[in-house]
Write a structure and sequence with these properties.
The complex is a heterodimer. Helix content of chain A is 0%, strand content 56%. By secondary structure, chain A is mainly beta. In chain A, the strands form two sheets. In chain A, strands 2, 4, 5, 9, 10 and 11 form a six-stranded mixed sheet that branches. The termini of chain A are far apart. Chain B starts with a strand and ends with a strand. Chain B is globular. In chain B, strands 2, 4, 5, 6, 9, 10 and 11 form a seven-stranded mixed sheet that branches. In chain B, strands 1-3-8-7 form a four-stranded antiparallel sheet, with no helix packed on it. Chain B is mainly beta. In chain B, a hairpin with a 5-residue loop joins strand 7 and strand 8. Classes of the chains: A mainly beta, B mainly beta. The interface between A and B is medium-sized, with 26 and 24 residues.
Amino acid sequence: QKEVEQNSGPLSVPEGAIASLNCTYSDRGSQSFFWYRQYSGKSPELIMSIYSNGDKEDGRFTAQLNKASQYVSLLIRDSQPSDSATYLCAVNGAGYSTLTFGKGTMLLVSP
Amino acid sequence: GAGVSQSPSNKVTEKGKDVELRCDPISGHTALYWYRQSLGQGLEFLIYFQGNSAPDKSGLPSDRFSAERTGGSVSTLTIQRTQQEDSAVYLCASSLSAEFQETQYFGPGTRLLVL
């Protein structure tokens, strides 16, 4: 049984701060990792994907992957109120074509 | 270009009735996925298609659920004899292929309410 765990939150940060979202996964064979953002009442949209250990940066977003620790995180710098949403971690493995999603962490950025 | 589209956007039905949900993937995407999201829950995988074949149906909750895809494009998810616990948002996603590294792009979802 593949599992992806996230703290449900809410994680509250002030505007301009760094938000740190964390995710752990159970399947050591996992190969690809995705962060999706989901606004209330909307469908998930891709923020970042990462496949190799280390950091991957895209604008204000940085994804970090540590396969040895089975841990993936998303950092959001200079958080804005518009970043308030639920962030879903999703994991896939070689030989698998289906993503396993965590239940998501709700982020609240206060002005 | 056009994204994934789903219809209807909302569906209210009575317990025991059948419903059909439609998904139109991004043009050129060969893989198509159905998920279900209940209130406060994560995304639950239902079924995926590679072309017109469904290699993985393991997520379908019961034999009341079925899906098909024709012409490698549009897919229909059918729920027979709906129950109140079927109430959820049904999300469709597509990707260029079913390779594990491909990004899945989601449609807006169909909100199903079974009374």
